[in-house]
Amino acid sequence: MRVADQQMYGILLGNLQRSRLQMLTSQEQISSQKRVTNPSDDPSAFGQIVLDKSALSQTTQWVRNINFGTSRVNAADQALGQVQNLITRVRELTIQASSDTTSAEGRQSIAKEVRQLQRQLVQLGNTEVAGQAIFGGTKTDVQPFTITSGDTVAYQGNSETQSIAVGENQTVQILVPGSSIFTGSTTNMFDSLRDLLTALESNNRSGIQAGLGNLDLATAQISDVQGTVGALANRLQVTHDALDTATLTITKSISDNQDADLATAITQLRLQEVAVQAASETFTKIFDSSLINYLR
User: Where residue 296 falls among pLDDT bands split at 50, 70, 90?
Assistant: First the structure.
């Protein structure tokens, strides 16, 4: 085979190999529906995909954190609503018991209902989500409130709050400790109910009337905490919505850089199949011609 024929042979073979490689690339894109899977496919796009996937992973973690926090904040909000209703009922009973027309026996009967309500208040103070106490501060593995003796209730939690990461250098508090709710600085609800029970069972009308004032303080204290919890729930929701938007934006960016345009890939594949076929035919003709000339 002459030098000129060898050069042409090499050029045609190289063109054929490139066309086949391009055809395989198109087939892979159609099969995987991905345009970029390796750095060599598109270095710039691949780098952006890596950055976007990292950002998406972090955003997904923040959303998981918010879902974790929201479940606890919602549980706290629901429990506080029940606490407020319970205190309202105790107040109604206390007003009834403070009346001149209520007998000692009547106050004894009221005391029985108030004691049951106090036990319900303890249960609400021990509200859990997924086995974790939500009113114990950061001591989520113990019941925050226990009845130690008689009608005395002790707090077993701490006064620390728990926060979650919801963004870059952003955190949101998700737990309000029971020490700020039930045994807060304004009034200790459990002590107030204990003293009220003592007054009811001893037919102490002045003590009963004093209990009314404590119940009003408890109502205000719960209302303040409900406002705090509501604000936390609102912030979590707003942040969740923002992260949802960010997730869509990042996902679209990944898709734009990574996904194959199937219509374009199929068109390119067809063109490449034609090119391979043409190159193969040309290569065969020239090789056969060169071989005949060589034999002559």
Answer: very low
Q: Please name the residues in contact with 281: beta carbons below 8 A apart, sequence gap of 6 or more.
A: none
CB of 243 closer than 8 Å to CB of 62: yes
Which phi and psi (to 5°) does residue 162 adopt? Answer: -115, 135
Supply the pLDDT for residue 199. Answer: 96
Average pLDDT of span 12-29:
63
Strands 163-167 and 170-173: antiparallel
Residue 128, classed as helix, strand or coil, is: strand
Report the alpha-carbon distance of residue 262 to residue 267 in Å, rounded: 8
Q: What is the pLDDT of residue 250?
A: 95
CB 70 within 8 A of CB 240: yes
H/E element, 172: strand 170-173
What is the average pLDDT value for the chain, to the nearest integer? 86
Rounded Cα gap, residues 263 and 141, in angstroms? 57
Residue 97 or residue 267, greater confidence: 97
The pLDDT tens digits of the residues spanning 5-20 come to 566 556 656 665 666 6
Helices 189-201, 104-125: crossing angle, 10 deg rounding: 160
Length of the chain: 296
Say how many CA atoms lie within 13 Å of 14 toward its Cβ. 6
Count CA atoms within 13 Å of residue 115 on its CB side.
Answer: 15
SS3 state at 191: helix
Q: Which residue bears the tokens 């119940």? A: 215
